[in-house]
Amino acid sequence: MLIQTSTVSWLPNSLTKGLGSPKIVWEPLNSKYGGYYTHGGNEIVVTEQDGEESTIAHEFRHYTQERIGTLGKGKLDFSISYEDMIKKYFRSYWHEYDALLFEYKHAKNPYNEWWLRKLVWEN
Ligand SMILES: [Zn+2]
Predict the structure, then answer these.
(1) b/e 64-79 (16+ beta carbons within 10 angstroms → b)
(2) pTM for the full model?
(3) Where are the domains of the chain?
C-alpha cells in the first residue's frame, strides 16, 4: 500500500527525539534506487513503491548516523550478480549494515528480510 507518509513520526520516539525532522521528498519510481539521503542534507528522497516505510527507516538511519558521526560512504559493485552485490555492499560498509538492521527492526518487509537473512547472514 502506498501511504506516502511525509514524516518519521511512526518511528519510536526515543529514536527521533532531539534529531530534528528530515524533509521527506517523493520521486517517481525508478529501477536504480528506492531512496537516498544526501550527505550534509536535511532531505530523504523516496521513490514511489511498496516498502516505502523501510526506505524511510533506512535513510533516516543515515540521517541519524551523520548527526552522531558514523555515516560513511559506500559503493555498489554492479560488475557482479545482484545477490553478490547486495551481500558485498552490506558486508563491506558498516553504516549500510547498520541501516539495514534498523529498517529490518522497524519496517520489516520481504526484501530486507531476504537481504539480511539469506544474503548477508548466510554464506
Ligand atoms: Zn544505505
Answers:
(1) bbbeeeebeebebeee
(2) 0.90
(3) 13-120
